[in-house]
Structure formats: structure tokens, C-alpha cells
Design a protein that fits this description.
111 residues; mainly alpha; 2 domains; two-stranded antiparallel sheet
């Protein structure tokens, strides 16, 4: 049970650090307490993936590859989006479709 709580605490606190991105005593204290509360709630439900398993050499290579591929895709998507925004000849599709209905008792705008 304590290893489950430790694993959930590691995931919760890591998520807190990534979301807040600040390192003050108050932030770390509040985040640690919140992570502990969050870790204790689902701990009795079953086994948990342990965050320190990512340091296993067999998993580390896969994680590094995943980070590299994901980072590359994010950069490509951002460049393509910036190109669409800054090039006025490539309009953005709004996704909104509307048409005027002309016949029947329910005449009017149809979305």
C-alpha cells in the first residue's frame, strides 16, 4: 500500500510541478500536500505504474524516443499553424456551415 501511495504521490507531484512551473516554498508545500491527498484516495483501488520505472535502461530508451518524436511533431504543427496564420492566401476554415432554408413552414436559417 505504501508503494502505491509513493507512486501516486510521484505522479501527482510531478504533474503539479509541470502545471504550476514555479519553485517557491509555498507552491511546493501546497503541491506536496495536495499530491499526498490525491495519492491516498485511489491507492486502495489497485496496482499503479511506478514513476521510477522510467529510469530502467530498457524503458529509458523508449521514453527518450517518445519525447523526441512528440517534440518534433509539436514543432512541425506549430510551424504549419504559424504559416497558415501569417499567410493571408491560406484562409482558415471556420468549421461553421449555415444555409438559408426557403421552403416549407419552417423557413429560416439552418445551421
Amino acid at each position: 500500500m505504501t508503494t502505491r501511495i509513493a507512486a501516486l504521490f510521484g505522479w501527482s507531484f510531478g504533474t503539479w510541478l509541470l502545471l504550476t512551473w514555479t519553485v517557491t516554498v509555498e507552491q511546493l508545500t501546497f503541491g506536496g500536500l495536495l499530491a499526498l491527498v490525491v495519492a491516498c484516495a485511489p491507492a486502495p483501488l489497485g496496482p499503479v505504474a511506478r514513476p521510477w520505472r522510467l529510469l530502467d535502461p530498457r524503458c529509458l530508451a523508449t521514453v527518450v524516443r517518445l519525447v523526441i518524436v512528440a517534440s518534433g511533431r509539436i514543432v512541425v504543427a506549430n510551424v504549419l499553424l504559424a504559416r497558415r496564420i501569417w499567410a493571408p492566401s491560406r484562409p482558415l476554415a471556420s468549421g461553421w456551415s449555415s444555409s438559408r432554408r426557403r421552403c416549407g413552414p419552417m423557413a429560416g436559417w439552418v445551421v
